[in-house]
Amino acid sequence: MHRLITLCSAVSLLVGGSQAIAQQPDFSDTQIETTKLSDTVYMLIGAGGNIGLSIGADGAYIIDDQFAPLSDKIRAAIADISDQPIRFVINTHWHSDHTGGNEVFGEAGSVIIAHDNVHRRMSTDQVIQAFDAQVPASPKAALPVITFNDQLSLHLNDEPVTAYHQRNAHTDGDSIIHFPDSNVIHMGDTFFNTGYPFIDTSSGGNINGVIAANAFALTLADDNTRIIPGHGPLAGKADQEAYVHMLIQVRSLVKALVDEGKSLEETIAAKPTAELDEKWGGGFIKPDAIVTFAYQSLTQ
Ligand SMILES: [Zn+2]
Question: How far, in Å, CA of 285 to CA of 205, rounded?
């Protein structure tokens, strides 16, 4: 029997839990909060990854779908805006706090779209090393039906929206989604607006790719761009610039120790990010964890 490990519950392990196996969290009190970002684009916050939503004359589609038990609440929040069917779900990456609703939406007729590596990882058993979490393969209805290797555009609701794959960033299957007319970018988990980010090095993630993804997004952004992070509140260009600057500092601080031949344990013990920790280390990824992700990125 598989007991489902969600990323959300797994994350609690890093924060101080000791159980390697955790139950699906209770979402009964979770509310879906909707923010309008343009005439057609919205952001939905509930539990798990932030959702992007496009609604217009051609129908509705969403970016990510959080956890399965929230599907009815997500659908109700969308129904408050429009009675259009949800035609497509684009997954920014494979983690279950972003794809947990796939099975429900897929069975209801939504076509699921993602990078090739999202399909590859969701269709096989996975291990998220940082949380010692085993994630079983997803049922067929949850898997992406359309996959792409580089970029893909949707021409709906009078706006050409493009998903751009970001190589080896938070995972090896990340996409960021650009709404050029609405001036919105959904970053998936290449951007945590909560402090230091989780970088899933066991799924092909790498700090270099996270930096590159955010640098690329900044080339699409201006001072009015609304940036949807994978987690945390809506952001703007200045927030993203500060985030990239921090990641570049972390990388160079850890690289100096890697270049001296230090082990991972010695690098963690040296507390190379000490100056940054007060501002960035208060989220669910602690200083030791970001140092570990950077070290693995630079040595794997
Ligand atoms: Zn993730």
Answer: 15
Say whether 98 sits in a helix, a strand or coil: helix
Q: Does residue 1 fall inside a structural domain?
A: no
DSSP conformation class of 173 = S
Is there a domain that residue 137 lies in?
yes
Ligand 1 center from residue 261 Cα (angstroms): 30
Calculate how far, in angstroms, residue 255's C-alpha sits from the geometric centre of ligand 1.
24
- Where does 148-236 have alpha helices with state H? 207-220
Distance 260 CA to ligand 1 centre (A): 31
- What's the total number of domains in the chain? 1
Q: pLDDT (tens digit, 9 = 90+) per residue, 101-145?
A: 999 999 999 999 999 999 999 999 999 999 999 999 999 999 999
Å from CA of 130 to ligand 1 middle: 12
Q: How many CB atoms lie within 10 A of CB 180?
A: 12
Q: Global pTM?
A: 0.92
**Residue 77 within a domain:** yes
CA angle (33, 37, 41) in 5-degree steps: 90
